[in-house]
Design goal:
single chain, 285 residues, mainly alpha, 2 domains, 13 helices, disordered N terminus
Length: 285
């Protein structure tokens, strides 16, 4: 079964635990409150979804909780999302509760409901945090906790989201001439970031070298007239292949997984989500 929600940000304050929270960071607080902001709830569900998709065991949850200490990004100063319907908020709460309980049937039903409402109400939750330096340092340790089956299953769930470096550049070339200036800048930067990640993983210095090559190629294509672009397209595609020629496919998958684990650790909600899962497992036991 395919379940996915993007990684996201921080937990909200439980109203009944406000006095405790004053001595506890957001990243250390697991909140099951229904009175929670839309952004915080989206982020909470995202973290729990990733843990569910990784199918982590009880011991792994505890090890992850240790690794997740102080890796979360700082809470956003603007912890808001566009206003959504009460129906959607209720559906998201049901998904959150099912994920905490680990009830697969309820997770599937709740996931379908959330996805249907996102489609019908045009809801697109935003990730509003950056990867932190501590998360970069610990991502490899998280990956080592997982066995090969967990990694393979997670990649299979996200197969459509794993980019191919050459295709990323070629797709950007396809769109670069017709895009507005702002759209082109976003398109170029996203392509450079993805290719840099696939090439160098979390090594920012090495990734920037590759990112610059992608940026230069796309800027050059953008500056051409349409006739020049059409006449030069084969050379531009060759330039894309030149940039990506040394990227090994299995190494790229490893780098993609490292980025996913760094995203998970950077989510300010992850520590709280782990607390909720560990507590739920303890209650079952």
């Amino acid at each position: 079964m395919t379940r996915w929600l993007g990684l996201a940000a921080l937990a909200a304050i439980p109203l009944l635990s406000l006095s405790v929270w004053t001595q506890t960071s957001w990243a250390q607080t697991g909140d099951l409150s229904a009175d929670i902001s839309g952004a915080a709830l989206e982020n909470q569900v995202a973290a729990l979804t990733t843990l569910d998709e990784l199918d982590v065991s009880g011991p792994q949850l505890k090890q992850l909780r240790t690794l997740a200490k102080d890796t979360g990004a700082a809470p956003s100063a603007d912890d808001t999302q566009p206003k959504v319907s009460s129906e959607y908020h209720t559906a998201l709460l049901a998904l959150r509760d099912a994920l905490v309980a680990g009830d697969d049937d309820k997770i599937d039903d709740a996931q379908d409901k959330v996805e249907d409402l996102r489609d019908s109400q045009n809801i697109d939750p935003d990730q509003d945090y950056d990867i932190t330096d501590p998360a970069r340092l610990k991502a490899k340790s998280v990956l080592k906790l997982l066995n090969s089956s967990q990694i393979a299953n997670y990649i299979a769930l996200h197969a459509d989201e794993v980019p191919d470096a050459t295709e990323v550049i070629e797709d950007a070339l396809d769109q670069c001439k017709d895009a507005t200036a702002d759209d082109f800048a976003s398109l170029r930067d996203e392509a450079a970031d993805q290719v840099g990640m696939l090439s160098a993983g979390l090594d920012q210095t090495a990734a920037k070298v590759v990112e610059q090559k992608v940026t230069d190629l796309l800027n050059r294509a953008r500056a051409m007239t349409q006739d020049q672009f059409d006449a030069s397209r084969s050379q531009l595609d060759a330039g894309a292949r030149q940039i990506t020629r040394n990227i090994d496919s299995f190494e790229a998958l490893h780098h993609w997984m490292l980025r996913e684990m760094a995203d998970l650790l950077s989510n300010p909600q992850t520590a709280g989500a782990l607390d909720l899962r560990i507590s739920a497992d303890k209650d079952k036991g």
